[in-house]
Inverse folding.
């Protein structure tokens, strides 16, 4: 197996990873970044991004990520294609195996592996991703101003997404598979007191309907077996996210949902020299701008750690 030693290894190629690579490069850390299965992260599944500062008319998600990557490369980051298959954070330097065939020894490690939104697993849902199907109301809700949308879920996140969308959309359906909401009483009250939210109880999504222009409706099935369609322009999933932390959770502390826990506003984990940035440690905001900011913090924290260890 090939072996290599690096000062700073970054795992993950989304806004957090690329921003960490930009800052680490400028700090002279000669970072190596492995992009994983989805170079550019979740943002590459988004078309227009209108809430990232600096782009008056918005920017395509793929373009934003490729521009971040190019900036990191220009500043000296070594960005590679590859998937981390194993990790050992009990030794110094840390040992990370890529694609089962290359072993990287790293003095500092930045974990920016992101989180994946949970989907229902319907072929029609996959077909219309980016064309009306979304897992982020804050990101994409603007495009459905004064239109009709549906939100799947019955927890706090679903209620938050629904009430946010209700402030800009003409009508919001909540598709709830049970006869009660799982959300806190306060969030339930907000939903009940929002007149343009209608809850469809005991319903599961059978199919997302649409045409070449995107989503046009949803086919639902009730518990009693009856099937009916509702016309909608947007279909939002709010059934949770899955942080990609499994490879590291043996060593770093994670919360019950699997998000890596960091020390206060820093990116430090409970393992000295290991830092976490982006959605893998952020169960609350999950925005490109907050991920990028945490990538900046991770690089600065890694630089400070390496100086303390006389590695730079």
């Amino acid at each position: 197996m090939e072996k290599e030693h690096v000062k700073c290894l970054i795992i993950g190629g989304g806004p957090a990873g690329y921003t960490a690579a930009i800052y680490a490069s400028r700090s002279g850390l000669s970072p190596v970044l492995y992009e994983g299965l989805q170079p550019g992260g979740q943002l590459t599944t988004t078309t227009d991004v209108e809430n990232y500062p600096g782009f008056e008319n918005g920017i395509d998600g793929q373009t934003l990520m490729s521009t971040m990557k190019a900036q990191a490369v220009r500043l000296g980051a070594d960005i590679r294609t590859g998937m981390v298959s194993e990790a050992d954070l009990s030794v110094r330097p840390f040992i990370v195996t890529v694609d089962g065939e290359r072993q990287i020894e790293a003095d500092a490690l930045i974990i920016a592996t992101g989180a994946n939104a949970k989907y229902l697993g319907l072929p029609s849902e996959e077909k219309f991703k980016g064309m009306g199907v979304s897992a982020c109301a804050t990101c994409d809700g603007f495009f459905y101003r004064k239109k009709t949308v549906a939100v799947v879920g019955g927890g706090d996140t679903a209620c938050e997404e629904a009430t946010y969308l209700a402030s800009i959309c003409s009508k919001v359906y909540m598709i709830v598979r049970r006869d009660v909401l799982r959300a806190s009483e306060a969030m339930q009250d907000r939903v009940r007191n929002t007149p343009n939210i209608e809850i469809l109880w005991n319903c599961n999504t059978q199919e997302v309907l649409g045409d070449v222009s995107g989503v046009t409706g949803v086919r639902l099935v009730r518990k009693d077996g009856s099937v009916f369609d509702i016309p909608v322009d947007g279909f939002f999933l709010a059934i949770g996210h899955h942080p990609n932390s499994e490879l590291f959770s043996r060593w770093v502390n994670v919360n019950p949902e699997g998000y890596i826990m960091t020390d206060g506003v820093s990116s430090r984990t409970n393992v000295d020299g290991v830092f976490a940035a982006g959605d893998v440690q952020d169960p609350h905001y999950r925005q490109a701008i907050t991920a990028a900011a945490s990538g900046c913090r991770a690089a600065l924290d890694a630089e400070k750690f390496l100086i303390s260890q006389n590695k730079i």
In short: The chain has two domains: 2-116+241-308, 119-237.
